[in-house]
Design goal:
2 copies of one chain form a homodimer. By secondary structure, the first copy, chain A, is of the alpha/beta class. In chain A, 31% of the residues lie in helices and 16% in strands. Chains A and B meet through α4 and α5 of A and α4 and α5 of B.
């Protein structure tokens, strides 16, 4: 109980997000802990936990008594980009709320392509009344999910619920009911060759950086009822080679893409993606991390750790996610 | 077996649809029956079954040995509009394929409003990168389904799968797991007052004609995270008072609508719906009746009926659906 009488402080280090609502939630959820907002708290020995999104490089390495880092995003590439990252456990956020939001986005965008949203919106603009009598059923469409972690698995099951055929690909073998699971480099070709719509929910690691490139697109050989494959990236912008995506759209290797993430965010105003007729752009809004649903479990983990219990949802440093 | 040695003919009477693909499917599925396309077969005593979409008025009443009418659409208002409709059983289509397609459409449009599709598309046009940090989760949104038949029930369950709160309203009491079911005139106000998004899958009958009118909109009092209620009509155009819908959008009583059906179809080029910023128009494409999935069960019913077995999925003439 000694720790709970004088629990360590929390450092909040968020780039690009206003800290106010996070601070408020921390104050309500963890009244027993003080939270300071970076750049406050530099080298502060009373800080034991950091809650971060794209933390300022080298800031975490200066905290002498840091016990663990909590990422408020599902991906942790924003943590590993710090060259002086201290050797403490990194906890990823696993939140039913965040997972459900991502699945909403995935199902929304899969359905928007499958049900010809772009075509019907253009027809509305042109005042044209013309139904596509060849509309396939979901049961005729294979959706392939790249990345079968918490997010990919949930999205796969919800797409199954809507009647789609679903397959998945992951680095290590997974088993998801009703989903054809491929794994490793030898599983990639059969996965790519059978998918009408490919949804990317991979972590960004040295192995996956720019994995969405011309070589991969050339292996997406399925030509189903929707034509050439459709790509949906709701993972990280760093996964995609953007010149290769534009080229694949222009040559017809891909028939359409939805991108929620980009190499550079915000997407620059002169990006060719904005006005491309085959591109749907959303502003990294697929699955927002909501303080109200994330802070409670984080503080519970800090308290449990102080009582000597193990941390859960730990990042594998070697795998990079 | 006597009937099967000389089975009755089929009359195909479709308005607005090319009969070719239906004829082909009938020839493949029912090689033992001859099919004639209206206006052929007038008063033909060898015709025992009619397969219809908006049949030509008075044509069915002239067939002396007609045993049953099969509607290729889920709604049967197009049959009842014939003033000389003969007094034979009317069979509605109940097809897992048709039901699944309608649920795809409903989930697609619910998600498109819930996930701010119109807003993000406008931002893409304007090259604006701005996430809505107040995006509610599906679990914070109540979707109300008007009409809990085959279609409404399936859509309700699939919306539940995505995490939405779902309620339903129907003329007679229903019970759907996980769905708050309201019924009858006394159930309408509590249903309307608690729904953020209202999906209309009602049959068109004298009781429901123009039920979507200003009186109903005034009773939609919920003001949730998405603002004023959103209306999605994938039932029949005759359910809606179109002037009242436009007025409700202009006054803010409704925040947006998706209409797949209209009083007049095709929607006239001068309709104000086409260019209205709060209206999504689709060309009666929510759930197409596909010959390949519908004809088989119809022919099976005809053969069973000839063997003396009862018809199923019969329309209740008094209720009108």
């Amino acid at each position: 109980m000694s720790e709970n009488n004088n629990p360590g402080r929390i450092l909040l280090s968020l780039t690009g997000w206003a800290p106010d609502v996070w601070l408020k939630q921390l104050a309500e959820t963890a009244p027993h802990r003080k939270t300071v907002v970076e750049p406050e708290g530099e080298s502060d020995p009373s800080i034991e936990y950091a809650v971060v999104w794209k933390p300022r490089p080298k800031a975490l390495g200066k905290l002498p008594r840091l016990k663990a880092i909590f990422s408020v995003g599902a991906g942790v590439d924003h943590v590993f980009s710090d060259p002086d990252l201290p050797d403490v456990p990194i906890v990823r956020v696993v939140s039913p709320d965040l997972t459900a939001r991502m699945s909403e986005y995935v199902v929304w965008q899969v359905l928007d392509h499958h049900r010809l949203g772009p075509r019907y919106r253009q027809q509305q603009l042109d005042r044209i009344w013309e139904e596509d009598r060849d509309q396939p059923a979901a049961s005729e469409i294979s959706v392939g999910i790249m990345g079968l972690g918490e997010l990919g698995t949930d999205a796969a099951l919800k797409l199954r619920c809507l009647g789609f055929k679903v397959s998945g690909w992951s680095r290590t073998a997974k088993n998801v009911e009703g989903v054809i699971c491929h794994a490793g480099s030898e599983g990639l070709d059969p996965f790519l060759a059978t998918s009408d719509i490919i949804v990317v929910l991979l972590p960004l690691t040295p192995d996956t950086r720019e994995i969405l490139n011309k070589d991969l697109f050339a292996r997406m050989t399925k030509r189903g009822p929707l034509g050439a494959p459709i790509l949906i990236n709701a993972g990280r912008g760093g996964l995609q080679n953007e010149a290769d995506i534009l080229n694949a759209l222009d040559t017809g290797q891909l028939s359409a893409v939805t991108l929620d993430v980009f190499q550079q965010e915000p997407l620059p105003a002169d990006s060719p993606f904005w006005a491309h007729p085959k591109v749907t752009v959303t502003p990294h809004s697929a699955a927002a991390s909501m303080p109200a649903s994330l802070i409670g479990p984080m503080v519970a983990q800090m308290d449990a750790h102080d009582r000597g219990e193990p941390l859960t949802n730990l990042v594998d440093r070697k795998a990079g996610y």
